[in-house]
Amino acid sequence: MNLLDYLATEFAPFDEKPFNPVDSAVLSQFCMVRAEGVVPALRERSSFLDLGTIVENLLSPARSAVRFADALRAELYPSMFTGLDPHRVKENLLALAASPRFRDMRVRDYLSLFDTDRQTQFAAMTFVHRKDFAYVGFRGTDTSFTGWRENFNMAYTAPVPAQEQAARYLQAVAPRAPKRVYVGGHSKGGNLAVYAALKAPPAVQRRIELVYSHDGPGFKAGTFAPADWAPLEGRIHRTVPQDSVVGLLMESHVPPRVVRSTAKGIDQHSVFSWEVAGDDFLYLEGLTDGAQLADAVLTEWLAQFSDEEAAVVVDAFFQAVEASGARDASDLLCGGTKALALVPEAAKNMDPGARATLLAALKPLTEIAARRLAQGVSVLWPGSRAPSQPQAAERSAGA
């Protein structure tokens, strides 16, 4: 089973089966719906304007909240679904509208911010189940280069604007939310969920039942001290697929739970490929050898750069991406190795200084990988078949 199978078969209400990690993943994918003019906007959105961002959702419905069925507007479909798997996001919306478990849930407080100059892409919304609980969901990265640039910025800047906005958003919606609050997101959205929860005032932190990060990256070294995690100890649920790359990046105080995915390599980042067993994911004993190698190589490589050097390298990389002619991130990430090969080819047309910076940064990456493989580590890169797969273990979410 996957998320869509779960929505098609799980009919139990929340008072019979409590909110679970699969529910969080499902709602995290509705956060990938561009809901301007459909989901009522955050009332306090004016408090975000001092950040210099552009508020996209100025047209707000008169109602205070809507159901998932209210988003079924075919005239909006051409631009409504974002992310690297928009077709599945659309299917997820249809399934939520039909599901007896979810269809009466209300959605409100939509906020979408996009600022090319500040390299900011942020969106969030709040899902409310009666007066019982609220789920504060944060959008992952869309396909814009602005959104992906902000992701890269996280490696050398803390906080990035989206993280600041996530903290503001949670504080803004908490006073009007039911007492019990869940917070979550997928990919960058998972990072924002954890950041917002860790930065929340103690009164809000005490109301948080769980924070869900579905293959969300960690944080730049030094962003949080060990003491910062203490108030939410045991209440951060972090999941990654067995070949995870994104969810292993940077630092996290919370060890991940590994979910079995039916996809290969980077395609496992899509939660629609994650296997579901009953009312939870199907967990594995550990990551593949390939995922562990990739994490070790990237960690060692990134540690070679100061924050200033990393900023220069990231800028050079995106100059190459722009020169490649790619329209957005999907052109690169969904185009396979042939599309990615356009980037170094495009580097030939870059400014000589930027080209030299990029090539100099990439050289040690290949050297680190070659050295680790030469040391006798019998592993393969994520995306290829590892020598041995982890054994499945049907562990509960609390195991």
From TrEMBL:
This is DUF2974 domain-containing protein. It holds the Pfam family Mbeg1-like.
